[in-house]
Amino acid sequence: MTGKQVKTEIALKGIGVSPGIAVFSSQLLTPHTDKAVRRPISEEEVPSEILRFEDALIATHDQIKHIQKQVSQVLGDEHASIFDAHMLVVDDRTFIEDVIRTIKKDLINVEPVLQSVANRYADMLSKVEDSYLAERAADIRDVTKRILANLAGETLDQMKQIKEPCIVVAHDLSPSDTASINKTLVKAFVTDLGSSTSHTAIMAKALEVPAVVGLHNITAVVNSGETVLIDGGKGLVFVNPTEERLEEYRKRAEDQEQILLELASLRDKAPETMDGYLVPITANIELLEELEGVDARGAKGIGLFRTEFLFLGKNSLPGEEQQYEAYVRAAKSQYPSPVVIRTLDLGADKLPSGFENPDEMNPFLGDRAIRLCLSHPELFKTQLRAILRASVHDNIRMMYPMVSCVQEVMDANTLLRQCMMELSKEGIGFNQDIQIGTMIEVPSAALIADLIAPHVSFFSLGTNDLIQYTMAVDRGNENVAHLYKPTHMAIIRLIDHVVKVSRKYGLWTCVCGQMAASPHLVPLLIGLGVDELSVSPSQAPVIKDVIRKLYYSSAVELAQKALNSASAEHVEHLCRELIEEIAPEVLEL
Ligand code: PEP
Ligand code: MG
Q1: Whose CA is nearest to atom 10 of ligand 1?
Q2: What is the value of pTM for the model shown?
Q3: Considering only CA atoms, which residue is closest to atom 8 of ligand 1?
Q4: 107 belongs to a structural domain
Q5: pLDDT tops 90 at residue 79
Q6: Which of 123, 297, 461, 576 is a good FRET partner for 378, with 20 to 30 A between their CA atoms?
Q7: Domain assignment of residue 387, yes or no
Q8: Ligand 1 close to Cβ of residue 463 (< 6 A)
């Protein structure tokens, strides 16, 4: 048969998390899995299978050594010593010989053999009533995961091998994977998993790479090399798009470009409502490269510097000096506008290499953010010192993430004072009066805002987590994304409460969660009395456009109606009605 075979177009709807239209050839990344697929091998394949195993052991050995060095520099020798035990496993000849013998005997590929031998060793150790040996069982499991990952080739490595511009198709991307994306080659990405405020989505916005997540089975639908069209704003993906579709989207892309061009002209205009009420727009940044875009997009200052991204997707953990330089660079680039540095929000999905996964049942409710910092004082103090030293640039402010009780703020402030004393003794300068704030993103913190207020100068509402924790809806899980409702009455009431408390105590309140960057929710937040909105730089022109077309009086009226509503759907409807009336163009993006 001759002639080109026309492939059928497949249309899929997911969750659009970063706007923009892109058409490129797809690059499928093999899902990284801990499950070892069983494959029979021939006698001739045995030597190469053993070689694969030995290569993976060498790679694992090198990684552990490297991580150990990093951890000892940043966290101290005590934390680094746990890797001694990992090293013993990877160098254990009895264990290694057992795997090799089984490959030869059973003629099976290395992965399932390794897994079953490791399970046997770990089970044996965990049955012994000795806590030291029980811990060794956990070491065997951890190291096995690492060897399996080396055998599979991690997503991160696959990402580094991309040589041509493409759309990445993946089961899931961790924030570390996304942080290392080369945006000249990765023109967009689509994933099976994920939701609108997942950290991967946040990175896509930071990189300004169109992205659609939560597609469930896109990796099963697309093969590498097929043409994929993505509409990041609407959450649509077309595999093998028809000529008509491509034409429709060429036109749509032109219209969007025109709207963005008009919004760009707002750069030097004030974020002021029609009746003269000023709502400062600051920027959320994850990467230092984003700093240049802040002023260029018409935002003034940084409302949220997610410093944990200095640690993610990197081979090394940044120490005091490197962090100090990053904070100074941020402060200088924005001066005299404020730069709010959030202390490390590590843990859960944001674990850098060098941090062993603590194997928690519910990591989002576990040792993350301020909890992890307080349980790793060396790590925390390194950051506090770096921030304090940078605070000689007096536009620097600092805030703590995921505070859930007053004691955490007090403990963090105690460590801060210790660092101040140490720096004074060393004759190093810092701003004694640096403003300290807290994120309000755990419902308990929102409800006791009045008890936290005396210890801080400002609040920053992290609505992404506030919604997740208030509604018990995992913000990164596409299966429950329909339950994740920013307009839920519980959320509206919590925001209203926090704003009222902050006014009573003479503090100011910013919103730095995704709600601030959702055009139709901006009038509601302003009407509820929020003082500042912090959004990704790319979203700043859109939000400024909304503010400039809004009457403050209509925002207050909307907020009153919302507070008297009975359902999320009704509040959502009120918000959409207003935005369609005042700024319908932003809904086209
Ligand atoms: C939030 O939770 O709303 C927030 C801004 O923090 P992050 O998205 O980094 O968790
Ligand atoms: Mg948060």
Answers
A1: 465
A2: 0.78
A3: 464
A4: yes
A5: no
A6: 461
A7: no
A8: yes
